[in-house]
Amino acid sequence: MIAYITGATSGFGRAIGLRLAKNGYDVIITGRRKSLLESLAKEIKQIYNRDVWISHYDVRDANSVKEAIDALPEKWKAIDVLVNNAGLAVGLNTIQEGNIDDWERMIDTNIKGLLYVSHNIAPLLIKQGHGQIINIGSIAGKEVYPQGNVYCATKHAVDALTKAMRMDMITHGIKVTQIAPGAAETEFSLVRFKGDKLLADKVYNGFTPLSADDIADLVEYVVNLPRHVCLNDIVITCLAQANTTITNKKT
What we know:
Elements: E1 2-5, H1 11-22, E2 26-31, H2 34-48, E3 52-56, H3 62-70, E4 81-84, H4 100-128, E5 131-136, H5 149-169, E6 174-181, H6 188-192, H7 197-202, H8 212-223, E7 233-236
Parallel strand pairs: 1-2, 1-4, 2-3, 4-5, 5-6, 6-7
Helix pairs in contact: 1-2, 1-8, 3-4, 4-5
């Protein structure tokens, strides 16, 4: 079994790579930070004795995505699970104060990146006549919150694309699942606040957020369901979070 995971250098992607390797998958791990991919590959091989293929590219670059997938050896093209995990939030501003470069980075990664990868991997799944696509969305794809405008819009797009992909894939026997996490302590807030650790840490003060392992738990469950069972859409939050705007923080 082979799993293809985007954004595997940290957070959800890294945890999912480890978990699927534990479940007997050989893994293709992709991302922009080559040294972190190499570190993860070494860990997977040492702990789980699984084969690993590293694809070092940026999902925002359509040509790089295609070239990387086309260059996979035939063995590695027999992909069973695609995890579209690469995504990010950058900035937290009103529309009138927003940074257009931040907008483009989110749109290009969260929407176009998912499309580029799916467009190239889907034919490989169809050729086999089975497989699963798991899109990592967000609770922000279900509702919006103040100053989250463009990020929320990109994750609403992931929600819509997941539904559309399910329709496109159903005649080919391909499962399509969205996992939409709430607040999770990864590099998410550090990236959003452009490396400001003090601001990032404040996001999770006063409550216990989700962890990357919590999402890996869910991926593990989803991929081990019977062949005839598909979980279409899963929203997961920590106990303290009711929605995007209400979190029970203890001060």
